Input
Amino acid sequence: MASALQGWRVEWCEFIFDLRFGFSNGGNEERIYWESQISQPIERKPACWYDGRVSYTYTYLVPLNPEPKRTEYIRRVTDFLLRKQIVGELESVLGQKGFFGVGDSALEPFNAREDWEPGFHSCVIFIYPRITIVPEDPTPLEPRCPDCLADVSQPLNKLYCPDEETQLEQIDFGGAKVTCPECRGSFRPDELRDERGEGIFLTDRYVCFTDAGDFRPEWLAEFSEAAGTPHRVVSYYYT
Ligand SMILES: [Zn+2]
Output
């Protein structure tokens, strides 16, 4: 299945206004869709620019325990997020399993703020039967060799994007290694240092919210109890 998501990001007065469009080709049916959303108010001058992929933060909830296994984990978190109306079905967007929009109670997981209403834009539950990498886009990383601290961006980017056709969810990172160009040491991606501090993780399960607010500890505890495992919360900023 080929899919694409592109958009314009428009800042106007005190708001960022997202206009997204894209297409998906699931089976024989080609769909074209668009969506729009007012994001957070900001203090900037009016501006408009092409953003390619319109997302500002990706916040991952990565399970810390090996149990429950993938299928059971997906079942539990999907059930919880839909039942609590945190997420809503969003079949018109991408037509892709595991991809959700906001539900009626989408503000529930987040600390209240005075300056803007915290929520999220979309939610992805990783559904593919393989080990994947967090974050799913290496742009905010500054990966370094854990032994000699050399920059290993290039060999890491090659793992993310081995060729023009391969999509990230098709790649199994289970045996992936990065070779340091300086000391020739060989490391798993999650053994690398990330100078920006967020880190790199390998997992076969995660839930990712885009443009999310700050999660309330009480909500995270409830989510983790329903999922059957505590989670690491890690955010990556794309600016
Ligand atoms: Zn090295």
In short: Residues 55-112+204-239 form one domain. The CA atoms of residues 110 and 146 lie 35 Å apart.
